[in-house]
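We close this part of the discussion by returning to an individual protein. In the encoding step, the backbone of a single protein was reduced to a row of integers, each denoting a local shape. The sequence in question and its structure tokens are set out directly beneath this paragraph.
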Amino acid sequence: MGAGFKLLNNWLKTCIQGGSYSWPTIGSSAMMRDEVWVKRGQSCLLFSFSSQFDSKLHETSIDECMPCFVDLTKTLTTMRTNEISDAMERYAKTLIYNVPRGKKIRVRATVTAYKLLESAERLTPENLRLAHIIGWCIEMMNAAILIEDDIMDASLMRRGAPCWYLVEGIGMRALTDASLIENSVYDILKTHFSNQKCYIHLVELFRLVMYFTGLGQALDTLRPATKNGRCDLDFYSEDKYKNIVKYKTHYYTCEFPVRVALYLTGKLNHEEFKPHFDVLFEMSYFFQLQNDFLDCFGNSGITGKEGTDIQEGKCTWLIMTAVRRANASQRRALSENYGKRNTESVRIVRNLYEELMIPKTYFALEDNVSNLIYKRTREVSNALPDFLIYKMKDMMCKKVSNYTD
């Protein structure tokens, strides 16, 4: 048994002892049967790819997704243990720390989309397993992006724990880890999809989405010119913000899971689905807008991270809206304090947001987002099931009261 697999087993054992729903240490024979024990409270259920998936169920729970992650981690970290066992052990730790935490929106969205788009006769256990694998590939890409994003933003916390680069012994080696996670995805795609008609389409899509996301990250790091200690507020335009949403958030959060699900069903030409992708962009816009709001007003004990957008001088929905509403005095205060790291400047900007009633505007948008998505979905063709868009909305657009109390 390789060092990486031993580390995986130790992690599973620790999770169980912690009392949360988790995955216990299991033998390699059980892993080979694609089975894993899942504990919640006092009860244990055995999830098996041969029996767990029901083609009539459109919901995709976190519990349903986790066995596949365990299997992928075992495979990725035991391939070359005879030669580089120390590297494989480090890689296991990297995957465990960065990939499975969080809400797992992308893998759940991918599997849900596949369940809704595929014909009943093709919803076999093996095909559903492939949908989980491709969903976890997207989650791995997300993990790689977040590792790099935390370094660029000088963030401290991610999902309630120190950012990976701040973990003892990691530092800037986190960049190598992010690259390893990203490149492992293509190995997974080759192993599981090279015999599929959609293989080349999937590889090209993954590369294109990562390229677009890189462009989005580049846009997100741009900052306005400063003069005499004041930033140019005209930099924070709606067009610039929409481009950040499009390239940084939309492609790999909302559109990506639906496109890969379409490929898995054999639909290789996506032109007819463009109106639905436009609706998904509006969902992405709110998703990013909500993320901006929580960065400033969220409870870090609940969101799991400390906000840095004000200190970083980022182009967010809050500053864009504030600039449009501010009078001359308020604009001067914003230009003098936005993008500065001292506590007093951050406090002044937050107070200005409240003075300009930006939280009230946010909650009004939140209350209306469901109606907007339902309305826009009904206006487009039925090439995609309406229920798919609604389920995506439910996964992506949560009430921020869950994160601000």
Summary: DSSP finds 18 helices and six strands in the chain. The first strand starts at residue 35 and ends at 40.
